[in-house]
Amino acid sequence: MDPVVIVGAGPVGAASAILLAQRGVPCLLLDRYSTPYPLPRAVHVDDEVMRILQQLGIAERFAAVSRPGLGLRLLDGRHRTMAEFRRDPAPGPHGWPQANMFDQPDLERLLRERVAELPLVEFRGGVTVTAVTGVTSDVATGTATCTVTCTGPAGQETLAASAVLGCDGANSTVRGLIGATLEDLGFQERWLVVDGVTDRDLDAWGGVHQVCDPRRAATFMQLGPRRYRWEFRLHDGESTLDVPALLAPWLAGAAVTVLREAEYTFRATVASTWRRGMVFLLGDAAHQTPPFIGQGLGAGLRDAHNLAWKLASGRPTLLDSYERERKPHAKAQIRLAVVAGWAMTGGQDRAASVRRVVLGAVWRLPGLKGLALRSTSPPLRGVGRGRRAGTLAPQPVVRWQGRDVPLDDVLGDGWAVLCRPGVLIRHGSARVVRVTPELDPSGALRRWMGRRRTVLLRPDRVVAGNGWTPVAQ
User: Fold this and answer.
1) What domains does the chain contain, in order, with CATH numbers?
2) Predicted TM-score (pTM) of this structure
């Protein structure tokens, strides 16, 4: 079988390669650079995405270099707290803290280490892809008609592929090669991002601080020991800012070494198509979001998680569901980020000061705290029947073979059926897990199942249906 060629070895590309290789699919991972990008970018993943890192085999190592986020504070222009939304740093329904702060180079290092552990993944750095042709292929037989033309240390090569994954970022070459365009979802702002290390701990609250001031909207957060990030919105016509003056109110006299100072344009876009034949777009190549709800990297890892098991299944019809499921989901989260950005930064027009007054009252409305802290992502559409179809099953700790383990470790990599004791089912190739009091001592899984006798879970732990074919007793 020809390998799946993955263009781009950032977190989404590396995760795709790991997920495929763990399912027996050979992968060729290509990147323009031989080493991971060394500077910070993404800083947050939620508990659902932590489950993906768990399936990649790096969650425990990642937990050692990340820290739970404590929530969100909304500040006025004088850094006075207008509202505070706290998160519990303890593991939540998915087995991990709901917010996890980190430094992206740490994550990329762990992913590259995991890639190196898998013999079915070959990594080639210093490679530039110039063409993708013949975008149909029979995954079931491995007969490739995809080709990837690239240049690298060995000169120009044409590679055969069973599929091509474009994980090559916002300026994706693969996206252009398959003729996809970007749909603008109506948001564009320029921000200055500053990452730094201080000479002493700033004794800051461990959540995200959002300055809701139209004169200078800003964000501040702690990423690790003495590691901090500041983001400042740039107004039209501004090209430079007095960075030391902007940082001074946060430092309280501490000295800071700036690791990175870069201007970014935050956009809200979605690719017109995510697939041509056996060429797929993932991550920033398929969608770009403002950072206000911290779902940029998470959306890309969700793409990889959704597509990998379908590619590995050998069932071409499953591939039709990738864009159908992921695109509406990504759009919903992007639109939420745009709304959050408007609410937290207030825009740049003359009405912004009026909206600040309104916002101060709105944040205090009963019930808004739950909405602001909700980390559960929208359900996938068209997955199956039943109220829970398309949602992600929880991951409590269960008792299995004498040990306390997370549920996903029991379910394995394939389809699974959760069923009540005494229910006999035709399970096919799915793993059957009987939810007994012994397995589920906390009762969390039984409470989630409610009166359902069986629940069918896909390999990505999305609920595919609330029932299964019972055998007559």
Assistant:
1) 4-64+102-183+270-330 (3.50.50.60), 397-465 (no CATH)
2) 0.92
